[in-house]
Design brief:
The chain has 350 residues and is α+β, with helices and mostly antiparallel strands. It is built from 8 helices and 16 strands.
Length: 350
């Protein structure tokens, strides 16, 4: 595991390059709002490209299972569109990949470029060009992880923007006073538990499916611990602390039941850059010990230099009648809205 000190020294070298579109259509003042379903990517190309090596490569990238969900859901849903159908109705779509095979000066070297806001606000637009199918497939494969990360990150950012339009300012401000941090949570969120060492925010939703209303729950936990060594960032340490805290603070619906980690499915762990600092990211499944509830969770642990503590912010979803991917992207957006709280400067007395 990378140490905290070595990670700090490498943070400044980490960046993701998104090439901005320089056309007249890219001027922000002229752009419309994005359209299209969350988690959907429109792929514009000829049928031969879609059914060939380049299309296979895209499916290999985006059809991968979204990490640690109770059932298979792809990272993204791909929708194929023929170039002649790519009109002004489709151009503002939130996520677009255009693939082209041609023998021109600009296609002799295969390339994949990423643009932001070409035809719509908050749009991500990718162009892949090559002379031959094999070259295009190779170029897409080489940038596969970057493409997956870019599309996922912008979807999470879109959720964050929507939540920020109607956030719960009462919870935000109280988190600042109680925990020394702030989160952007939806207006319909409520406190479930407030104690000195554990905070729990609850969000109850109702969604329609099959002609009936079904409950959906999202929850968020905040807790701190003294930082003593880099080993606390390890996957095993994070899971052990998580299970300890949840057993003490998150009871289930039946006597002696409580939330814990479902270990029959291996959690996903990654050391990440967060707000220019070191953090540990954990994705997995939760379950209720002594009952039958369960679902996915996303956890982020960061180092707070002000207090010398580790801060964990975690979110989970419970949606037994629905796919979980987009609920978890929304959870991730809320967790990653974490910022350190700065108390307002008192106004000087005249």
């Amino acid at each position: 595991m990378q140490t905290l000190a070595s990670f700090k020294s490498s943070v400044l070298s980490v960046c993701v390059l998104l090439v901005s579109c320089g056309s007249q259509e890219g001027a922000r003042s002229a752009l419309t709002g994005k359209v299209g379903a969350a988690g959907e990517i429109v792929v514009v190309c000829d049928e031969a490209v879609w059914s060939g090596a380049a299309g296979d490569t895209l499916r290999a990238i985006f059809d991968q299972p979204f990490p640690v969900l109770p059932q298979y859901e792809p990272w993204f849903d791909l929708v194929h569109l023929e170039p002649e159908s790519f009109d002004r109705f489709w151009k503002p779509h939130r996520n677009i990949i255009v693939l082209e095979l041609a023998d021109r000066v600009d296609t002799q070297t295969p390339e994949v470029k990423i643009f932001k806001e070409k035809y719509a606000r908050e749009q991500l637009y990718v162009v892949g060009k090559a002379r031959y199918a094999a070259g295009l497939a190779t170029a897409l494969d080489a940038r596969g992880p970057e493409l997956l990360s870019a599309f996922h990150r912008i979807e999470v950012d879109r959720y964050a923007g929507l939540i920020g339009l109607s956030e719960n300012e009462v919870i935000r401000d109280e988190l600042g006073q109680r925990a020394g941090l702030q989160l952007t949570v939806p207006r319909d969120a409520r406190w479930a538990k407030k104690s000195d060492d554990f905070l729990w925010i609850d969000r109850q939703l109702t969604r329609m499916k099959g002609g009936d209303n079904h409950d959906v729950q999202q929850g968020f936990f905040v807790y701190r611990e003294p930082y003593t060594s880099d080993e606390q960032f390890s996957m095993q340490a994070r899971l052990s602390k998580r299970n300890e805290v949840l057993k003490d603070h998150v009871p289930g619906p039946t006597p002696r039941s409580f939330m814990t980690t479902e270990m029959r499915y291996t959690p996903s762990y990654e050391e990440v850059v967060f707000n220019s600092g070191f953090a540990a990211e954990l994705r997995g499944l939760w379950r209720i010990e002594g009952d039958y509830m369960g679902g996915p969770f996303y956890s982020l642990t960061a180092y707070d230099e002000r207090s010398g503590e580790l801060v964990t912010v975690e979110g989970y979803a419970y949606a037994p009648f629905f796919d979980k991917r987009e609920y978890m992207r929304e959870v991730e957006a809320i967790v990653r809205s974490l910022v350190w709280y700065e108390a307002p400067t008192p106004t000087p007395t005249p």
